[in-house]
C-alpha cells in the first residue's frame, strides 16, 4: 500500500493509540470497559521503564493501526511476547494494514529470540480467527482466559482479612 509506514510508536502517538483502543472496545461491544488514560499510556509505554511496546501503521502520517505488545514468560517456552491488541481503524480494514502490522510484530519477536508469541481473539470474531490462522497461527480450544478486575481483587483481599 502506497504511503503505508509501520514504525515504532512515539509519545505524540498516544492520543491516536487511545482512540484506536476505544474503537476496538466499541467493536468488541464493551465501550465502557476502557479505563486507561492518555497519561497512563504515556507513562507506561514511553517512560523510563516501558511496560509495553507499540508499532503504529500510518497512512499519509495519520495513525490508522497499532500493534501493542509486552513481554511475558512461559514456564514451558521461556521468554515470550504477548500481542495485546492489533487494531486497524474500520475505514482502513481489508487493505493489508493488519497484515503489515502482524508481519512487523512477528519479525520483531523472532529477531528478539522468543520461542512463542501469543494473543487472544474473541470466539465470535471469525474474521480475525480466519486472518490469524491463514498466517499460520493456531487458535487453541480448551483454554479459558481467567481474569480478575481491581474490584474483584479488593473483594478477595477483604474476604481473606475477614477470615483472619
Give a brief description.
With 164 residues, the chain is of the alpha+beta class. Helix content is 37%, strand content 24%.
> What average pLDDT do the residues reach?
94
Number of helices: 5
At the first level of CATH, what is the class? Alpha Beta
Q: Beta fraction of the residues?
A: 15-25%
| Rg of Cα set | 17 Å
Number of domains: 1
- Low-pLDDT parts are none
Please give a structural write-up.
The model has no long low-confidence stretch (mean pLDDT 94). This protein has a 5-stranded mixed sheet with strand order 1-2-3-4-5. It has a single domain (4-119), classed as Gcn5-related N-acetyltransferase (GNAT) (Aminopeptidase). The protein contains 5 helices and 5 strands. It is globular, with a radius of gyration of 17 Å. It is 37% helix and 24% strand. With 164 residues, it is an alpha+beta fold.
What tags apply to this protein structure?
globular; 5 helices; about 160 residues; alpha+beta; 5 strands; Aminopeptidase
